[in-house]
Design brief:
Distance between the termini: 59 Å
Strand order of the largest sheet: 1-2-3-4-5-6-7-10
Largest sheet: 8 strands, mixed
Low-confidence stretches: 1-9, 364-377
Strand content: 5-15%
CATH class of the largest domain: Alpha Beta
Shape: globular
Order of helices and strands: HHHHHHEEEHHEHHEHHEEEEEHHHHHH
CATH architecture of the largest domain: 3-Layer(aba) Sandwich
Length: 377
């Protein structure tokens, strides 16, 4: 009966049902485990998970942490912004009830946002119970500065979060033993790769695998470096069939295409990825739409120098910041702010932003956006 169910369904929740009774002592850490824990990084564990790795006591297990977290919410699911699904909290609750994850020990949770540095960085680590540790980096959250740092990757190397990711990984390595697994979703996947590539030799020698779940790549100079080549064979990159984010910039390592239950850019939501047994459901290639977006995006970026990219990104961020909005939720709650920001941009920057939107969503979608903007004016 259990095997028949496994053939019929393949969500992350099913994975928890199929393999949740297997601790990491019985079945080693894998790709689906990486995605689940990477998704949990979007939860604000401040006050619930110890912020360091140096305490004398062992940190509490995830089950205990989750009970305290849910109790503090008083039955209300906290909002994590416009782009992080509320189902993330459901995943936490379901995950914590399993022996596989509930007995892990989360620790060293950090969440640092700095407007001056244009940095959004968050990470958490998990002791897996078998001596190994998983270091997980959060992707882009709801903050505008987080999105600014994302765009900065097109002309700045490294961005502040990447430098901090390296320092964090080495800090965790210094206070743990055993194998180290590193991963993240979206920008978190990029941070996982950067940190692992740039880590010192002692840390790098302990890294068993690096999981990049639909995170952007790097420029050609980065992936041609010797420190990248040293660990390339331990980097595993996964993208859904209509990936947009994960196809940005360059990936020298081969990537695996994962089946998603969503459509288009919504496939970036890791909760929509399908699993079978201890692996993702694999496809032969990305979709034609993803190939078109990938080639069009690279062609577009090639038309601008790094300085020109910086100018466009700065213009967009300054216009949005002038509205006093700090998050995407702030903008979503007041559409007038979006119109004001759009009108505040110069024509060149506005045209470049329009072109980017057009590439990602397609011309038909862009026409609707233009009409909506005109009506708002």
């Amino acid at each position: 009966m259990g095997e028949k169910k496994q053939m019929q369904s393949s969500s992350l929740y099913d994975y928890l049902s199929w393999r949740g009774d297997l601790t990491f002592d019985h079945s080693g850490f894998g790709e689906v485990d990486s995605l689940i824990l990477s998704i949990l990084t979007y939860i604000d564990f401040t006050g619930f998970v110890v912020p360091d790795a140096e305490g004398g006591k062992r940190p509490p297990v995830l089950l205990s942490v989750t009970k305290e977290f849910l109790k503090a919410q008083k039955g209300v699911i906290p909002s994590m912004g416009l782009i992080i699904p509320k189902e993330t909290v459901t995943l936490l609750a379901r995950t914590a009830k399993t022996a596989r994850f509930g007995l892990t020990r989360p620790f060293a949770f950090v969440n640092r946002i700095c407007d001056e540095e244009q940095k959004q960085f968050s990470a958490i680590s998990f002791l897996l119970g078998n001596g190994d540790v998983f270091v997980a980096y959060r992707g882009t959250d709801d903050t505008l500065v987080g999105w600014k740092e994302n765009f900065n990757m097109s002309f700045m190397h490294p961005v502040p979060a990447q430098r901090e990711a390296k320092d964090y990984l080495e800090y965790i390595a210094e206070h743990t033993h055993g194998n180290i697994y590193v991963g993240g979703h979206s920008k978190g996947g990029n941070l996982a790769v950067y940190a692992s590539v740039k880590a010192n030799k002692a840390t790098k020698s302990r890294i068993a695998a690096v999981y990049n779940n639909d995170g952007p790549g790097f420029d050609s100079d980065f992936i041609s470096g010797e420190d990248y080549k040293e660990i390339k064979d331990r980097i595993y990159t996964y993208v859904p069939q209509s990936s947009v984010v994960g196809m940005l910039l360059e990936h020298e390592e081969s990537y695996t295409v994962v089946k998603s239950r969503q459509n288009g850019i919504m496939q970036h939501n890791g909760l929509s990825w399908e699993a079978m047994g201890n692996s993702f459901v694999k496809l032969d290639s990305i979709s034609e739409h993803s190939k078109v977006v990938d080639s069009s995006m690279k062609e577009w970026l090639a038309t601008m120098t790094p300085a020109e990219r910086e100018s466009v990104v700065d213009a967009l961020y300054e216009a949005l910041s002038a509205t006093n909005a700090k998050t995407l939720s702030d903008l979503g709650a007041d559409k007038i702010k979006i119109v004001r920001a759009w009108n505040a941009m110069d024509n060149d920057a506005r045209n470049q932003v329009r072109r980017c939107i057009n590439i990602i969503f397609g011309k038909k979608k862009q026409q609707k956006t233009d009409k909506g903007t005109a009506a708002a004016k």
